[in-house]
Write a structure and sequence with these properties.
- The complex is a heterodimer of chains A (434) and B (743).
- By secondary structure, chain A is of the alpha+beta class.
- Chain A has three domains: 148 residues, Beta-Lactamase; 149 residues, Mu homology domain, subdomain B (Immunoglobulin-like); 106 residues, Immunoglobulin-like (Sandwich), CATH 2.60.40.1170.
- Helix content of chain A is 18%, strand content 43%.
- Chain A is built from eight helices and 23 strands.
- In chain A, the strands form five sheets. A nine-stranded mixed beta sheet of chain A has the order 11-13-9-8-23-21-16-19-18, with no helix packed on it. A five-stranded antiparallel beta sheet of chain A has the order 2-1-5-4-3, sandwiched between helices. In chain A, strands 14-15-20-17 form a four-stranded antiparallel beta sheet, with no helix packed on it.
- About 7% of the residues of chain A have low confidence.
- Chain B is flat, with a radius of gyration of 34 Å.
- The longest helix of chain B has 18 residues.
- Chain B has a five-stranded antiparallel beta sheet with strand order 1-5-4-3-2, sandwiched between helices.
- Classes of the chains: A alpha+beta (434), B mainly alpha (743).
- At the A-B interface, strand 2, helix 1, strand 4, helix 2 and helix 3 of A face helix 2, helix 4, helix 6, helix 8 and helix 10 of B.
- Chain B: Belongs to the adaptor complexes large subunit family.
- Chain B: One of its GO terms (molecular function) is clathrin binding.
Chain lengths: 434, 743
């Protein structure tokens, strides 16, 4: 199991070293500095040095490192490091850094002692950790009887991720469906790769132990419902068009056995925000944009570029902060760009024409043309990397996934306010070959 | 500022602060100083005294302190037992748990009796928080004195505790038994235990689930029906949000294939999609081990992933280690259907200037590998290689030429048709060393087939005397000789020239040697020479030795461990561990145990002045920058007393390790001589087995910086450990030593 957890900064200074098992010595940690920090090449995140394995992840200016002598499961170690980082974010804020660690030494040690014992991960749910980490309730000098009792019940609880006895005057649920597009489209508009990675993020403020049930327009489910017969779905409401989900993973709280028997997603959610599910869809996905690139090399020193972008989504919607990056040859001298909408300029650092459109309405056609002048003489081949797009489209999903219903059952709750948001995002992962 | 003063002031603060909130601040300061590497061991007695507080926050910090310095204060440790015992009786389960965890972590022989008593009580505690800590404490007790745990009531109790309602206690009991019984192959897995654990599987945390799955993987189901039950039950967990659980389920599934051979394909199909999703949905670090597992499966079941090739295409944002493993996978899953797609992708990476050189060479090698697997497409591969060579980008030409040579060796007849007419042009555009060597080899081997063959070689011979590369010279000698036997009239003159140049006008001993060898061969028996030079080569079809099936099977057995990542069975990298443990013990006296790269002095100042560390680092950097250009020259007669050396060695603020290789092996005396010649003073030297160990030092003239060194030389490998006060100088020193020794 894990022999120790270290926090080491870029300069090789050990900020925190918590050694759980005596099979490694502090002096051995130097090996990490030599073999990883001092190494000229960037190494992979699993480094083996003389029978000891270092697994590490970089966060800003420092590394969090798990050291082990056993032949264990690497994924577990990384999941655990990620969990530590999440917990620390919860305690020290999203952007915790070396200084945060340094000013909170003792709290860090306290946390590291509760989440891992003798190298074995223990409680890692932030909610429950709060019961053990007394510093949070510093104001209460004496812990109430109630909370002592809680500690005992807590750990027995079958539902380890939720504290009992929560009360809210206003019960609210927010569902965010965020889809990240990883598309590669040929210059004739054909899909070469169409991966949609979606996640369903739920943020809830609910009293008691609510049973939630989430319904999606999942094809398998809807087919099942219609008795296995392939009856044609009524296409009146968008939410009923079934979609095929290639693969889906759920948060621990989702009852997987129920999903397997009747494809229903039912769970008792953790309080606050959590990722309920992540999924992947590759079939029948919609392209939000059509890009028509025309690139012509005119002689040896000029390239003519014309790019037309057409938004295919409904005119009621719009894309925010659209950025189109059009690559130019490495020996570009200058670009003469003409466009009606948005701002465009040539960025020599990334060898691209960067065209940004703040608000891109649906069913709109915009185009940009440019004359790219090259430096003569330098004869290098241009690999023609693809055009890439950044954008965020609210209320739109490329997979067509829709939430059909969200039921919340808890006797103490009378009314729940529910919010559902959809978001379609690309961060340079929507690419079009030229 | 000395450390004793800091300790004194801390002690004073501890005694003076009566208020709880103030004491807490003081103790926090102590912990933070401890973390920075200041030795606060002398405060032990004071801290033990302070442990009698009711404030849990203080108590936690004090116990942390006690655990850290227990080793150095063995005689005072007994003082703390009173506090530990009292805390084990506390009303608050948090205090009981904390006390039990800390006491057992000491793993001290003296305390073993107290430990055993409190652990037994802890196992019965009414709070499950304490019980789960007690369970893991039994392992620590076992490490100190196994006889108190093995075969005793504790062992029995642990078995019964698996059935506890509390999931943590249950899992910890499994873990504890597994470790205690490791020598007997771990916990005895019965059907009853497995059924119990699987029934309540959903209650466990991800960590617990991973552990249970580890057990299930080792369990041999008794009937086919049981196999199917397990399969169905765990199938859901392939949708778990936790990578570790998904991989652990995969392992169980793969193991079940042995029992259900007819479901083999279905089972692999089940785990395929989750694995692919993991690659794109997790962070880079996580994707790495997952890809390694996919690679392992792909080596044996290439068709499983063949239709998913595009998922393994690399992204510009991928770190190099992910790009490499993805290319490895592409090489494995290539087949007739996806061949064009994969080759096209690889070729586009080669010319993509945003990827680094390492990757483009890697892709070229991959293309070569694919050619050897799918022989029917080799001509397409050759076309690509020729195109790459035309690009005239040094590293691409180099890699392509080498691969081109390999492809020709594989498919001589077919590929020569395409390559031979191009040789003359290639010889004019190629500039780099390895590429030239490959070209000359091709000329020697097949050059006679084209008219101008000997003349291309002759061009190279003309510049032989100006050639600086030994490799090229050697290859040229051989190729000219080969050509001589195939086309004697055209080559006779050039053979004479090159033999003369090699034996009379060369400086490289190897070149002279080979020249003389050929000369003598020819003058002794020309026919025999011919049969030696133009021996009949065996035909072969593959370069890379396929990993033996056994290795694959061992790795599949060790699925979901580091073995897969390292591509080595555990036995192979475990053994290194034992060897090194011995070495470490030997070295322990010499190597300083101070892990911090800052000296104690500096640290103390830091704490006292509350100086932000970053400033210091910046200063260091500034210093470094100003000294970058300097060179080392040592004071000729500089002497240190042994005690002074030792003192400096122990107290140096900076430590640098530097490994390098010598060109040839030397003995101890010659090392010392070389060092002395260059004004290094040897302090001590010795021979441990086959390792030479030398302590030496030197002082730089211009800066008065002193560097202390420990050299460990085994064969041609040198491990240098340098110490001094300035990191930048240490680096210069180390590099200086390396150049002195290698020259």
């Amino acid at each position: 199991m894990i022999s120790g957890i270290l926090f080491i900064n870029e300069l090789g200074k050990v900020l925190i070293s918590r050694i759980y098992r005596q099979d490694i010595t502090i002096s051995f940690i130097d090996q990490f500095k030599i073999k990883v920090l001092a190494a000229k090449k960037t190494t992979n995140p699993i480094k083996h040095v003389e029978g000891t394995t270092f697994c590490f992840r970089r966060i800003g200016s420092f590394f969090i490192v798990a050291v082990t002598k056993k032949n264990i499961n690497a994924a577990l170690v990384f999941e655990f490091l990620n969990t530590i980082i999440e917990i620390f974010k919860g305690y020290f804020g999203e952007k915790f850094n070396e200084n945060t660690i340094r000013t909170n030494f003792s709290l860090v040690y306290e946390l590291l002692d509760e989440i891992i014992d003798f190298g074995y991960p223990q409680t890692t749910e932030t909610d429950i950790l709060k019961l053990y980490i007394t510093r949070e309730n510093q104001r209460q000098t004496k812990k109430s009887k109630e909370s002592v009792k809680q500690i005992s019940i807590k750990a027995t609880g079958v539902i380890g991720w939720r504290q009992e006895g929560l009360k809210y005057s206003r019960n609210e649920v927010f569902l965010d469906i965020v889809e990240n597009l990883h598309f590669l489209v040929s210059n004739s508009g054909k899909f070469l790769k169409s991966d949609v990675f979606g996640e369903i993020i739920m943020k809830s403020r609910l009293s008691g132990m609510p049973d939630c049930k989430l319904g999606l327009n999942d094809k398998v489910l809807l087919d099942k419902r219609s008795g296995g017969k392939r009856t044609k779905m009524k296409n009146t409401r968008g939410g009923n068009t079934p979609i095929v989900i290639d693969d889906v993973t759920f948060h621990q709280c989702v009852k997987l056995s129920k999903f397997d028997t009747d494809r229903s997603i039912s769970f008792v959610p953790p309080d606050g925000e959590f990722q309920c599910a992540s999924y992947r869809v590759t079939e029948n996905v919609k392209k939000p944009f059509k890009v028509i690139p025309i690139v012509k090399e005119r002689g040896a020193i000029t390239v003519d570029v014309k790019v037309t972008v057409i938004s295919l989504f409904s005119e009621n919607l719009f894309a925010k902060n659209t950025v189109v990056r059009i690559p130019t040859p490495p020996n570009t001298a200058e670009c003469v760009i003409t466009t009606q909408t948005g701002k465009a300029k040539y960025d020599p650092q990334i060898n691209c024409i960067v065209w940004s459109i703040k608000r891109f309405q649906g069913k709109e056609e915009l185009s940009l043309s440019a004359e790219v002048n090259l430096i003569r003489g330098k004869q290098s081949v241009w690999s023609r990397p693809p055009i890439s797009l950044d954008f965020t489209i609210p209320s739109y999903t490329s997979s067509g996934l829709r939430v059909r219903y969200l039921k919340v059952v808890e006797k103490s709750i009378t009314e729940v306010v529910k919010w559902v948001r959809y978001l379609c995002v690309s961060k340079g992962t929507f690419q079009v070959r030229i | 500022m000395s450390s004793s003063r800091v300790i004194k002031s801390f002690r004073q603060l501890l005694n003076e602060s009566k208020e709880q909130s103030r004491r807490r601040v003081v103790i926090e300061q102590i912990i933070s100083a401890m973390s920075l590497g200041v030795n606060l061991s002398p405060l032990f007695a004071d801290m033990v005294k302070a442990a009698q507080t009711t404030d849990l926050v203080q108590k936690k910090m004090i116990y942390l302190y006690i655990c850290k310095y227990a080793e150095e204060n063995k005689e005072l440790l007994i003082l703390s037992t009173g506090t530990f015992q009292r805390d084990c009786q506390s009303q608050d389960p948090l205090v009981r748990g904390l006390s039990l965890r800390s006491m057992s972590s000491l793993m001290n022989k003296e305390l073993v009796e107290y430990m055993a008593r409190e652990i037994k009580k802890g196992l019965m505690d009414r709070s499950n928080y304490v019980r789960r800590i007690a369970v893991l404490a039994t392992v620590k007790l076992f490490r100190v004195s196994p006889e108190l745990v093995l075969g005793t009531e504790i062992e029995k109790k642990l078995y019964s505790m698996i059935a506890e309602v509390d999931p943590y206690v249950s899992i910890n009991s499994v873990v504890a038994l597994n470790e205690i019984l490791a020598s007997k192959g771990g916990i005895s897995i019965t059907q009853k235990i497995i059924i119990h654990l699987l029934k309540r599987f959903h209650e466990f945390t991800h960590w617990g689930q991973s552990i249970v799955l580890g057990l299930v993987a080792n369990y041999a189901p008794q009937s086919e029906q049981e196999c199917l039950q397990i399969l169905n039950l765990l199938d859901n967990y392939l949708k778990s949000g936790n990578t570790s659980v998904i991989l652990a389920v995969s392992k169980v599934f793969i193991n079940l294939i042995n029992d259900l051979p007819n479901l083999r394909n279905q089972i692999y199909d089940r785990i395929k999609n989750p694995l692919i999703t993991l690659v794109s949905c997790t962070g880079n670090e996580m994707a790495y081990p997952v890809l390694k597992h996919i690679y392992l499966i792909a080596t044996q079941l290439p068709n499983l992933f063949a239709s998913e090739a595009s998922r393994f295409f690399i992204k510009g944002s991928d770190p190099t280690y992910l790009q490499e493993i993805k290319i490895d996978i592409l090489c494995e899953i290539v087949n007739k259907q996806n061949f064009k797609q994969i080759i096209f992708a690889l070729a586009s990476y080669v010319i993509n200037s945003s990827l680094n050189e390492q990757i483009s060479s890697y892709c070229i090698r991959a293309i070569g590998k694919i050619a050897s697997q799918l022989s029917s497409y080799f001509d397409m591969v050759i076309d690509y290689l020729m195109e790459f060579i035309e690009l005239d980008i040094p590293h691409i030409v180099e890699a392509s030429m080498i691969i081109l040579k390999d492809v020709i060796r594989l498919f001589p007849e077919q590929s020569l048709e395409i390559v031979l007419p191009e040789l003359k042009r290639l010889s004019e555009i190629i500039h780099t060393e390895e590429a030239k060597v490959s070209l000359i080899w091709i000329l020697g081997e097949f050059g006679e087939k084209i008219d101008e063959g000997p003349y291309i070689l002759e061009k190279f011979v003309e510049t032989f005397s100006e050639e600086s590369s030994e490799k090229i010279k050697l290859e040229l000698l051989t190729s000219v000789l080969k050509m001589f036997f195939k086309r004697p009239p055209e080559s006779k003159k050039m053979l004479g020239v090159i033999l003369h140049e090699a034996t009379e006008n060369s400086n490289e001993p190897d070149v002279i040697d080979r020249g003389l060898f050929y000369y003598r061969l020819i003058s002794t028996d020309i026919n025999k020479t011919k049969s030696i030079v133009l021996y009949e080569k065996e035909k072969f079809t593959r370069f890379t030795e396929n990993d033996p099936l056994e290795l694959f099977e061992i790795l599949m057995d060790e699925f979901n461990t580091f073995s897969v990542v390292y591509k080595k069975p555990y036995d192979q990298f475990k053994r290194i561990l034992h060897k090194n443990e011995e070495e470490e013990e030997e070295e322990e006296e010499d190597s300083s145990t101070d892990s911090s790269s800052f000296s104690e002095e500096e640290l103390l100042d830091q704490i006292q002045q509350n100086v932000n560390d970053l400033d210091i680092n910046q200063q260091n950097q500034n210093q470094q920058n100003s000294q970058e250009e300097q060179e080392i020259e040592l004071v000729p007669k500089f002497n240190l007393e042994p005690s002074e050396f030792q003192n400096k060695w122990m107290n140096s603020s900076h430590n640098l390790n530097f490994d390098f290789e010598l060109d040839e092996e030397l003995d101890k005396e010659s090392f010392e001589e070389i060092l002395k010649e260059n004004n290094f003073q040897v302090m001590a030297s010795g021979l441990i087995q086959s390792t030479i160990k030398i302590f030496c030092y030197g002082k730089d003239i211009s800066s008065n910086q002193i560097g202390l060194f420990q050299l460990l030389i085994t064969g041609v490998n040198v491990k240098l450990n340098a110490k001094g006060t300035n990191p930048q100088f240490l680096k210069l020193f180390a590099e200086y030593i390396a150049t002195v020794l290698t020259e």
